[in-house]
Protein backbone atom coordinates (compact mmCIF):
# COMPACT_ATOMS: atom_id res chain seq x y z
CA UNK A 1 0.00 0.00 0.00
CA UNK A 2 2.67 2.52 1.04
CA UNK A 3 5.07 1.70 -1.82
CA UNK A 4 2.17 1.88 -4.27
CA UNK A 5 1.39 5.40 -3.06
CA UNK A 6 4.98 6.47 -3.57
CA UNK A 7 5.10 4.80 -6.96
CA UNK A 8 2.06 6.65 -8.25
CA UNK A 9 3.30 9.97 -6.93
CA UNK A 10 6.88 9.68 -8.08
CA UNK A 11 6.56 8.10 -11.52
CA UNK A 12 6.95 10.72 -14.26
CA UNK A 13 5.14 8.60 -16.83
CA UNK A 14 5.01 11.29 -19.50
CA UNK A 15 7.80 13.81 -19.98
CA UNK A 16 6.51 17.11 -21.34
CA UNK A 17 9.35 17.38 -23.86
CA UNK A 18 8.52 13.98 -25.39
CA UNK A 19 6.15 14.42 -28.29
CA UNK A 20 4.18 11.44 -29.54
CA UNK A 21 5.66 9.54 -32.44
CA UNK A 22 3.31 8.98 -35.42
CA UNK A 23 1.39 6.08 -33.85
CA UNK A 24 1.00 7.66 -30.40
CA UNK A 25 -1.47 9.94 -28.63
CA UNK A 26 -0.97 12.20 -25.66
CA UNK A 27 -4.05 12.08 -23.41
CA UNK A 28 -5.38 13.53 -20.19
CA UNK A 29 -6.95 10.94 -17.91
CA UNK A 30 -10.62 11.46 -17.09
CA UNK A 31 -11.46 8.16 -15.38
CA UNK A 32 -9.53 5.11 -14.22
CA UNK A 33 -11.12 1.77 -13.47
CA UNK A 34 -10.14 -0.24 -10.39
CA UNK A 35 -11.25 -3.87 -10.51
CA UNK A 36 -10.77 -7.02 -8.40
CA UNK A 37 -8.88 -8.90 -11.13
CA UNK A 38 -6.06 -6.34 -10.90
CA UNK A 39 -5.13 -7.95 -7.58
CA UNK A 40 -3.88 -10.96 -9.53
CA UNK A 41 -1.52 -8.73 -11.51
CA UNK A 42 0.46 -7.97 -8.34
CA UNK A 43 1.50 -11.63 -8.15
CA UNK A 44 4.56 -12.88 -10.02
CA UNK A 45 2.19 -15.24 -11.82
CA UNK A 46 -1.31 -13.75 -12.20
CA UNK A 47 -2.70 -17.27 -12.66
CA UNK A 48 -4.67 -16.28 -15.75
CA UNK A 49 -3.87 -16.03 -19.45
CA UNK A 50 -5.84 -12.89 -20.26
CA UNK A 51 -3.57 -10.42 -18.46
CA UNK A 52 0.04 -10.19 -17.34
CA UNK A 53 1.79 -9.47 -14.06
CA UNK A 54 2.81 -5.89 -13.34
CA UNK A 55 6.47 -5.21 -14.02
CA UNK A 56 8.79 -3.64 -11.47
CA UNK A 57 9.46 0.03 -12.32
CA UNK A 58 6.69 0.05 -14.95
CA UNK A 59 3.43 1.95 -14.50
CA UNK A 60 0.44 0.31 -12.83
CA UNK A 61 -2.37 0.28 -15.37
CA UNK A 62 -6.04 -0.59 -15.75
CA UNK A 63 -8.90 0.41 -18.03
CA UNK A 64 -9.36 4.13 -18.57
CA UNK A 65 -11.10 6.95 -20.40
CA UNK A 66 -9.38 10.15 -21.38
CA UNK A 67 -9.19 13.10 -23.75
CA UNK A 68 -6.68 13.41 -26.58
CA UNK A 69 -4.52 16.52 -26.16
CA UNK A 70 -2.03 15.80 -28.96
CA UNK A 71 -2.17 13.41 -31.88
CA UNK A 72 0.02 12.49 -34.82
CA UNK A 73 -2.23 9.61 -35.83
CA UNK A 74 -4.94 9.94 -38.47
CA UNK A 75 -8.44 9.53 -37.07
CA UNK A 76 -7.68 11.05 -33.67
CA UNK A 77 -7.86 14.77 -32.93
CA UNK A 78 -7.36 16.89 -29.82
CA UNK A 79 -10.57 16.88 -27.80
CA UNK A 80 -11.55 13.34 -28.79
CA UNK A 81 -12.67 10.99 -26.05
CA UNK A 82 -10.80 7.66 -26.09
CA UNK A 83 -11.23 4.38 -24.25
CA UNK A 84 -8.77 1.68 -23.20
CA UNK A 85 -11.25 -1.03 -22.15
CA UNK A 86 -9.16 -3.47 -20.15
CA UNK A 87 -5.71 -3.14 -18.56
CA UNK A 88 -3.32 -0.75 -20.32
CA UNK A 89 -4.18 2.82 -19.23
CA UNK A 90 -1.36 3.91 -16.86
CA UNK A 91 -2.26 5.35 -13.48
CA UNK A 92 -1.15 8.87 -14.36
CA UNK A 93 -2.99 12.13 -15.00
CA UNK A 94 -1.28 12.49 -18.38
CA UNK A 95 -0.27 9.56 -20.55
CA UNK A 96 1.16 8.67 -23.94
CA UNK A 97 -0.64 5.72 -25.52
CA UNK A 98 -0.29 3.71 -28.69
CA UNK A 99 -3.28 4.56 -30.89
CA UNK A 100 -3.83 0.86 -31.57
CA UNK A 101 -4.63 0.29 -27.86
CA UNK A 102 -7.54 2.72 -27.64
CA UNK A 103 -10.92 3.20 -29.29
CA UNK A 104 -12.24 6.62 -30.25
CA UNK A 105 -15.59 7.32 -28.60
CA UNK A 106 -18.07 8.77 -31.13
CA UNK A 107 -19.02 12.32 -30.18
CA UNK A 108 -22.72 11.44 -30.27
CA UNK A 109 -22.39 8.62 -27.75
CA UNK A 110 -22.40 10.79 -24.57
CA UNK A 111 -25.80 12.09 -25.69
CA UNK A 112 -27.19 8.60 -24.99
CA UNK A 113 -24.83 6.99 -22.46
CA UNK A 114 -22.60 8.27 -19.66
CA UNK A 115 -18.95 7.91 -20.71
CA UNK A 116 -18.21 6.28 -17.36
CA UNK A 117 -20.47 3.37 -18.33
CA UNK A 118 -17.88 2.36 -20.95
CA UNK A 119 -15.65 1.28 -18.05
CA UNK A 120 -18.55 -0.51 -16.40
CA UNK A 121 -21.79 -2.00 -17.53
CA UNK A 122 -21.41 -0.89 -21.17
CA UNK A 123 -18.03 -2.58 -21.18
CA UNK A 124 -16.27 -5.49 -19.54
CA UNK A 125 -18.61 -5.46 -16.54
CA UNK A 126 -21.75 -5.72 -18.64
CA UNK A 127 -20.23 -8.36 -20.89
CA UNK A 128 -19.25 -10.45 -17.87
CA UNK A 129 -22.73 -10.23 -16.38
CA UNK A 130 -24.66 -10.73 -19.63
CA UNK A 131 -22.58 -13.54 -21.11
CA UNK A 132 -22.37 -15.33 -17.79
CA UNK A 133 -26.15 -15.47 -17.58
CA UNK A 134 -27.06 -15.93 -21.23
CA UNK A 135 -24.18 -17.86 -22.81
CA UNK A 136 -22.21 -19.67 -20.10
CA UNK A 137 -25.29 -21.33 -18.64
CA UNK A 138 -26.77 -24.30 -20.50
CA UNK A 139 -30.14 -23.10 -19.19
CA UNK A 140 -30.13 -19.36 -18.36
CA UNK A 141 -32.18 -18.15 -15.40
CA UNK A 142 -35.88 -17.95 -16.21
CA UNK A 143 -39.24 -17.40 -14.58
CA UNK A 144 -39.50 -19.60 -11.49
CA UNK A 145 -35.74 -19.97 -11.02
CA UNK A 146 -33.79 -18.67 -8.02
CA UNK A 147 -30.42 -17.04 -8.59
CA UNK A 148 -28.04 -16.15 -5.76
CA UNK A 149 -25.24 -13.70 -6.52
CA UNK A 150 -22.32 -13.08 -4.15
CA UNK A 151 -20.46 -9.80 -4.30
CA UNK A 152 -23.86 -8.45 -5.30
CA UNK A 153 -23.05 -4.83 -4.53
CA UNK A 154 -20.03 -4.83 -6.84
CA UNK A 155 -20.05 -3.74 -10.47
CA UNK A 156 -20.68 -7.20 -11.95
CA UNK A 157 -22.95 -8.43 -9.17
CA UNK A 158 -25.31 -5.46 -9.32
CA UNK A 159 -25.65 -5.87 -13.09
CA UNK A 160 -26.20 -9.64 -12.79
CA UNK A 161 -29.05 -9.17 -10.36
CA UNK A 162 -30.85 -6.64 -12.53
CA UNK A 163 -30.46 -8.72 -15.70
CA UNK A 164 -31.65 -11.90 -13.98
CA UNK A 165 -34.72 -10.11 -12.61
CA UNK A 166 -35.60 -9.07 -16.16
CA UNK A 167 -35.71 -12.77 -17.07
CA UNK A 168 -38.26 -13.43 -14.33
CA UNK A 169 -35.96 -15.19 -11.86
CA UNK A 170 -36.00 -14.41 -8.16
CA UNK A 171 -32.64 -12.91 -7.16
CA UNK A 172 -31.03 -13.14 -3.74
CA UNK A 173 -28.05 -10.84 -3.35
CA UNK A 174 -25.26 -11.28 -0.81
CA UNK A 175 -23.36 -8.16 0.22
CA UNK A 176 -21.45 -6.72 3.18
CA UNK A 177 -23.60 -4.00 4.74
CA UNK A 178 -27.18 -3.05 5.43
CA UNK A 179 -26.75 0.15 3.39
CA UNK A 180 -25.68 -1.90 0.38
CA UNK A 181 -28.60 -4.25 0.96
CA UNK A 182 -31.02 -1.30 0.79
CA UNK A 183 -29.38 -0.12 -2.45
CA UNK A 184 -29.73 -3.57 -4.02
CA UNK A 185 -33.39 -3.81 -3.05
CA UNK A 186 -33.86 -0.43 -4.75
CA UNK A 187 -32.26 -1.92 -7.90
CA UNK A 188 -34.92 -4.66 -7.92
CA UNK A 189 -33.29 -7.57 -6.08
CA UNK A 190 -35.90 -9.88 -4.56
CA UNK A 191 -34.07 -10.10 -1.23
CA UNK A 192 -30.59 -9.42 0.13
CA UNK A 193 -28.46 -11.06 2.83
CA UNK A 194 -25.59 -9.41 4.71
CA UNK A 195 -22.74 -11.90 4.88
CA UNK A 196 -21.44 -10.21 8.05
CA UNK A 197 -24.53 -11.32 9.92
CA UNK A 198 -23.96 -13.71 12.83
CA UNK A 199 -27.03 -15.61 11.61
CA UNK A 200 -25.96 -15.82 7.96
CA UNK A 201 -27.23 -19.36 7.33
CA UNK A 202 -30.62 -18.58 8.86
CA UNK A 203 -30.81 -15.28 6.95
CA UNK A 204 -30.09 -17.06 3.69
CA UNK A 205 -32.74 -19.68 4.41
CA UNK A 206 -35.25 -16.93 5.17
CA UNK A 207 -34.41 -15.18 1.89
CA UNK A 208 -34.85 -18.44 -0.03
CA UNK A 209 -38.17 -19.07 1.74
CA UNK A 210 -38.08 -22.82 1.20
CA UNK A 211 -36.84 -22.66 -2.41
CA UNK A 212 -33.71 -24.32 -3.75
CA UNK A 213 -31.05 -22.33 -5.58
CA UNK A 214 -31.05 -23.02 -9.32
CA UNK A 215 -28.20 -20.65 -10.29
CA UNK A 216 -25.33 -19.26 -8.24
CA UNK A 217 -23.27 -16.42 -9.72
CA UNK A 218 -20.13 -16.80 -7.63
CA UNK A 219 -17.88 -13.74 -7.36
CA UNK A 220 -16.42 -14.58 -3.95
CA UNK A 221 -15.76 -18.27 -3.21
CA UNK A 222 -14.66 -19.50 0.21
CA UNK A 223 -17.02 -20.49 3.03
CA UNK A 224 -19.78 -18.33 1.61
CA UNK A 225 -19.90 -20.41 -1.56
CA UNK A 226 -19.95 -23.65 0.42
CA UNK A 227 -23.05 -22.33 2.20
CA UNK A 228 -24.84 -21.40 -1.02
CA UNK A 229 -23.93 -24.63 -2.82
CA UNK A 230 -25.36 -26.64 0.06
CA UNK A 231 -28.73 -25.10 -0.79
CA UNK A 232 -28.64 -25.80 -4.53
CA UNK A 233 -30.97 -28.16 -6.28
CA UNK A 234 -29.87 -31.13 -8.35
CA UNK A 235 -28.46 -30.12 -11.77
CA UNK A 236 -28.13 -26.53 -10.70
CA UNK A 237 -25.52 -24.20 -12.18
CA UNK A 238 -22.64 -22.34 -10.53
CA UNK A 239 -21.32 -19.50 -12.69
CA UNK A 240 -17.76 -19.44 -11.39
CA UNK A 241 -16.85 -15.85 -12.17
CA UNK A 242 -14.47 -14.77 -9.40
CA UNK A 243 -12.98 -16.03 -6.15
CA UNK A 244 -11.99 -12.85 -4.39
CA UNK A 245 -11.78 -14.67 -1.04
CA UNK A 246 -8.64 -16.46 -2.27
CA UNK A 247 -6.88 -13.63 -4.14
CA UNK A 248 -4.44 -13.07 -1.26
CA UNK A 249 -3.51 -16.75 -1.00
CA UNK A 250 -1.30 -19.11 -2.98
CA UNK A 251 -4.26 -21.35 -3.86
CA UNK A 252 -4.65 -22.26 -7.54
CA UNK A 253 -7.44 -20.60 -9.47
CA UNK A 254 -10.13 -21.66 -9.11
CA UNK A 255 -9.31 -23.00 -5.64
CA UNK A 256 -10.38 -26.59 -4.90
CA UNK A 257 -13.59 -27.13 -2.97
CA UNK A 258 -13.64 -28.70 0.50
CA UNK A 259 -14.31 -32.43 0.32
CA UNK A 260 -17.88 -32.18 1.63
CA UNK A 261 -18.82 -29.50 -0.90
CA UNK A 262 -17.09 -31.34 -3.74
CA UNK A 263 -19.05 -34.50 -2.85
CA UNK A 264 -22.31 -32.55 -2.87
CA UNK A 265 -21.52 -31.01 -6.27
CA UNK A 266 -20.86 -34.46 -7.67
CA UNK A 267 -23.88 -36.13 -6.06
CA UNK A 268 -26.30 -33.43 -7.21
CA UNK A 269 -24.69 -33.15 -10.66
CA UNK A 270 -24.20 -29.42 -10.18
CA UNK A 271 -22.42 -27.74 -13.07
CA UNK A 272 -19.43 -25.72 -11.81
CA UNK A 273 -17.22 -25.03 -14.80
CA UNK A 274 -14.88 -22.07 -14.68
CA UNK A 275 -16.40 -19.06 -16.41
CA UNK A 276 -14.17 -16.85 -18.55
CA UNK A 277 -15.97 -14.10 -20.43
CA UNK A 278 -13.31 -14.13 -23.18
CA UNK A 279 -14.61 -17.55 -24.22
CA UNK A 280 -17.72 -15.79 -25.55
CA UNK A 281 -16.16 -13.19 -27.86
CA UNK A 282 -18.54 -14.12 -30.67
CA UNK A 283 -21.38 -12.66 -28.60
CA UNK A 284 -19.62 -9.52 -27.37
CA UNK A 285 -20.85 -6.89 -29.80
CA UNK A 286 -24.49 -7.99 -29.73
CA UNK A 287 -24.44 -8.33 -25.94
CA UNK A 288 -22.93 -4.88 -25.51
CA UNK A 289 -25.50 -3.33 -27.86
CA UNK A 290 -28.35 -4.84 -25.83
CA UNK A 291 -26.87 -3.73 -22.51
CA UNK A 292 -26.24 -0.22 -23.90
CA UNK A 293 -29.89 0.11 -24.91
CA UNK A 294 -31.05 -0.98 -21.45
CA UNK A 295 -28.75 1.57 -19.82
CA UNK A 296 -29.85 4.35 -22.18
CA UNK A 297 -33.49 3.62 -21.37
CA UNK A 298 -32.92 3.53 -17.64
CA UNK A 299 -33.89 -0.15 -17.41
CA UNK A 300 -30.41 -1.15 -16.24
CA UNK A 301 -28.99 1.19 -13.64
CA UNK A 302 -25.28 1.71 -13.13
CA UNK A 303 -24.31 2.49 -9.52
CA UNK A 304 -20.85 4.00 -9.20
CA UNK A 305 -18.44 4.92 -6.42
CA UNK A 306 -16.08 7.68 -7.47
CA UNK A 307 -12.78 8.43 -5.79
CA UNK A 308 -11.15 11.86 -6.08
CA UNK A 309 -7.51 12.83 -6.07
CA UNK A 310 -6.55 12.08 -9.64
CA UNK A 311 -4.25 9.20 -10.49
CA UNK A 312 -2.43 9.76 -7.20
CA UNK A 313 -5.55 8.50 -5.43
CA UNK A 314 -5.80 5.29 -7.43
CA UNK A 315 -3.93 3.20 -4.86
CA UNK A 316 -6.31 4.27 -2.09
CA UNK A 317 -9.28 3.59 -4.37
CA UNK A 318 -8.00 0.11 -5.19
CA UNK A 319 -7.49 -0.78 -1.53
CA UNK A 320 -10.94 0.57 -0.66
CA UNK A 321 -12.56 -1.43 -3.46
CA UNK A 322 -10.84 -4.64 -2.39
CA UNK A 323 -12.12 -4.03 1.13
CA UNK A 324 -15.69 -3.61 -0.05
CA UNK A 325 -15.78 0.18 0.14
CA UNK A 326 -17.58 0.59 -3.17
CA UNK A 327 -21.15 0.25 -4.34
CA UNK A 328 -21.23 -0.69 -8.01
CA UNK A 329 -18.38 0.32 -10.28
CA UNK A 330 -15.29 1.80 -8.59
CA UNK A 331 -13.81 4.71 -10.57
CA UNK A 332 -11.03 7.21 -9.99
CA UNK A 333 -11.64 10.71 -11.32
CA UNK A 334 -8.73 12.29 -13.15
CA UNK A 335 -7.28 15.60 -12.06
CA UNK A 336 -8.73 17.46 -15.08
CA UNK A 337 -12.48 17.97 -15.68
CA UNK A 338 -14.23 16.56 -18.77
CA UNK A 339 -14.05 18.81 -21.85
CA UNK A 340 -16.87 21.27 -22.47
CA UNK A 341 -18.43 19.22 -25.28
CA UNK A 342 -18.78 16.19 -22.99
CA UNK A 343 -20.41 18.27 -20.26
CA UNK A 344 -22.80 19.75 -22.83
CA UNK A 345 -23.67 16.28 -24.16
CA UNK A 346 -24.36 15.01 -20.64
CA UNK A 347 -26.67 17.95 -19.95
CA UNK A 348 -28.55 17.26 -23.19
CA UNK A 349 -28.80 13.55 -22.32
CA UNK A 350 -30.49 14.27 -19.01
CA UNK A 351 -33.16 16.27 -20.86
CA UNK A 352 -34.06 13.41 -23.23
CA UNK A 353 -36.88 11.07 -22.14
CA UNK A 354 -35.51 7.58 -21.40
CA UNK A 355 -37.65 5.92 -24.07
CA UNK A 356 -36.17 8.25 -26.70
CA UNK A 357 -32.65 7.50 -25.52
CA UNK A 358 -33.29 3.76 -25.75
CA UNK A 359 -34.85 4.07 -29.20
CA UNK A 360 -31.96 6.15 -30.51
CA UNK A 361 -29.44 3.82 -28.88
CA UNK A 362 -30.95 0.75 -30.54
CA UNK A 363 -30.85 2.54 -33.87
CA UNK A 364 -27.35 4.03 -33.75
CA UNK A 365 -25.34 2.25 -31.03
CA UNK A 366 -25.39 -1.04 -32.89
CA UNK A 367 -23.25 -4.13 -32.53
CA UNK A 368 -21.21 -2.92 -35.50
CA UNK A 369 -20.72 0.50 -33.90
CA UNK A 370 -19.49 -1.10 -30.67
CA UNK A 371 -17.19 -3.64 -32.29
CA UNK A 372 -14.12 -1.43 -31.77
CA UNK A 373 -14.80 -1.32 -28.03
CA UNK A 374 -14.62 -5.09 -27.64
CA UNK A 375 -12.04 -6.18 -30.22
TL;DR?
By secondary structure, the protein is an alpha/beta fold.
Essential attributes:
single chain, 7-stranded mixed β-sheet, 13 helices, 21% strand, globular
Structure notes:
The chain has 375 residues and is of the alpha/beta class. It is 34% helix and 21% strand. It is built from 13 helices and twelve strands. It has helices spanning 2-10, 38-41, 124-136, 155-166, 178-186, 200-208, 222-229, 259-267, 284-296, 314-322, 340-351, 354-364, 367-374; strands at residues 24-33, 61-71, 81-90, 94-98, 103-105, 146-150, 170-175, 191-194, 213-218, 232-240, 304-307, 329-333. The strands form two sheets. Strands 1, 2, 3, 4, 5, 11 and 12 form a seven-stranded mixed sheet that branches. The radius of gyration is 21 Å and the shape is globular. The protein starts with a helix and ends with a helix.
Q: What is the number of helical segments per DSSP (H or I, 4+ residues)?
A: 13
| Overall outline | globular
Helix content: 25-40%
Low-confidence stretches: 1-17
Question: Which helices and strands appear, and what pairs or packs with what?
Answer:
Blueprint: H1 2-10, E1 24-33, H2 38-41, E2 61-71, E3 81-90, E4 94-98, E5 103-105, H3 124-136, E6 146-150, H4 155-166, E7 170-175, H5 178-186, E8 191-194, H6 200-208, E9 213-218, H7 222-229, E10 232-240, H8 259-267, H9 284-296, E11 304-307, H10 314-322, E12 329-333, H11 340-351, H12 354-364, H13 367-374
Parallel strand pairs: 6-7, 6-9, 7-8, 9-10, 11-12
Antiparallel strand pairs: 1-2, 1-4, 1-12, 2-3, 3-5
Helix pairs in contact: 3-4, 3-9, 9-12, 9-13
Amino acid sequence: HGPAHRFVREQDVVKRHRLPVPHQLRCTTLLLSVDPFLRCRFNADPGVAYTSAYEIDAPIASAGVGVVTESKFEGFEPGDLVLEPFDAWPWADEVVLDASRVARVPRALPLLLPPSSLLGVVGQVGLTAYCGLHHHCAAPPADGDVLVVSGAAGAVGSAVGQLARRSGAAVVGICGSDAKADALLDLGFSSVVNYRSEALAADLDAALDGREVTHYFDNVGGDLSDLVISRMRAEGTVILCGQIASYDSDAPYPPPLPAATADLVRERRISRERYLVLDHKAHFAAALAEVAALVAGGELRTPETRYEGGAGGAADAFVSMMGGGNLGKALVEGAAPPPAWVRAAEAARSALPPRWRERLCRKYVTAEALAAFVS
